[in-house]
Write a structure and sequence with these properties.
Blueprint lengths: L1 H17 L9 H13 L2 H21 L9 H30 L2 H11 L2 H41 L8
Helix pairs in contact: 2-4, 2-5, 3-4
Length: 166
């Protein structure tokens, strides 16, 4: 019974997450400011970093395959880079739409103004490095949480299921 409830809950959550939200089209002024913010954020450089990680992971998985030929390595990297570059305009426009819908016109003006200052440029430049440090901390946090979380979940799963509160 517990597993059925858990499965039903998981399906409901998956359906909720997979359902796209039908957001209204953002105002034109917001969209223009958001495009400027996205441009200042150097997201295209972040995408270059993403390509490097993606190709490393992809090639690490392929290099153990006996059918993989070493001479394919660079052409595969080039193919991924070319495809990401081809998709970049779409991605940047979608990011602009997300920003345009998330922030008011005033907030977008403030963000653009900040991003254009020396402090704003420093913030943008350091965000990537700080993200790497935060990711490493997240890995360490997961490692530290594992024993306690395992104990808690094992205890939870060994208990009789409780009736939901109406």
């Amino acid at each position: 019974m517990f597993k059925r409830h858990l499965a039903a809950l998981a399906c409901a959550a998956a359906a909720f997450v997979a359902t796209p939200t039908l957001a209204a089209e953002p105002p034109a002024a917001n969209l223009e400011l958001a495009r400027r913010a996205v441009d200042l954020l150097d997201i295209d450089n972040t995408m270059d970093e993403m390509v490097a990680v993606m190709t490393d992971v992809m090639l690490a998985g392929l290099e153990g395959n006996p059918q993989f030929k070493p001479e394919w390595r660079q052409p595969m990297i080039d193919a991924v880079k070319a495809e990401v570059k081809a998709q970049e305009p779409w991605y940047l426009e979608e990011m602009a739409k997300i920003y345009a819908g998330a922030y008011s016109e005033t907030e977008l003006r403030d963000l653009v103004t900040f991003f254009e200052t020396p402090s704003g440029r420093a913030f943008i430049e350091r965000t990537s490095e700080l993200g790497k440090e935060a990711e490493a901390m997240g890995d360490e946090l997961a490692r530290r949480m594992e024993p306690g979380l395992t104990r808690r979940l094992e205890k939870l799963m060994s208990e009789k299921p409780r009736k939901p509160v109406a």
